[in-house]
Amino acid sequence: KVRLIGADDDLRPIYQDVDSLKYDAVMCPKCGYAALNRYFNFVMSSQAKAIKENISLNFKYEDDDSPVYTYDDAITRHKMALACTVVKRGKSSEKAYTCLKLGWLCRGKRELLMKSEVTLKEEIAKLMDEETECLENAFEGFKDAFGKEEFPMCGMDMNTMMYLLAELAFKTGNIDDAKLYVSKVLTARDAQTRIKNKAHDLKERIQGNA
């Protein structure tokens, strides 16, 4: 059983021994259709047609028979999930959530490499850049979805999403947006105490960065 032991500032869950985030993307080895677990079964006929025409025709599954499911395996499947989401014209929130998960996986792999006895500076730097790009795309996607889609969104209520937007804005250098969203969380009467506490911590980090 996987045990949750904490979370990063951007709500990435941290588990003991095994990073279960790696297993959230499901991919069909025959047609190449991939999606996060929460979206996998929800495909309209027009979306299936688009995936067959744009993904399946060129898809070739390569099974290396490795007994270990690596971060590279997980990142590949999540990238396939993102490609399928774009092809099927999925909601902005789905694309954003997939980008967020990709960013978290890049961070997980980077943290693993940093524990290695062999220093891989170039690969670590590349993963940092890729994580930042994923978080930027997640921020833009969630920001677009915020005014268009209904809540709960990706399992989050409005205040949790506003906090996540604030944190992603801060991480990607969008300080004005970070200030805007964090202030909305702090003034929301129905925000959970846990989220308000995180918002207070973020506000202090924003002020310290000024």
Could you explain how this protein is built, in words?
By secondary structure, the chain is mainly α. It has helices at residues 45-54, 71-87, 92-114, 121-146, 158-171, 175-187, 193-209, and strands at 4-7, 13-15, 25-27, 34-36. The strands form two sheets. A two-stranded antiparallel sheet has the order 1-2. The chain has a two-stranded antiparallel ribbon with strand order 3-4. A hairpin with a 5-residue loop joins strand 1 (4-7) and strand 2 (13-15). Helix 4 (121-146) packs across helix 5. The longest helix has 26 residues, at 121-146. The model has no long low-confidence stretch (mean pLDDT 95).
List the helices and strands and how they pair.
Blueprint: E1 4-7, E2 13-15, E3 25-27, E4 34-36, H1 45-54, H2 71-87, H3 92-114, H4 121-146, H5 158-171, H6 175-187, H7 193-209
Antiparallel strand pairs: 1-2, 3-4
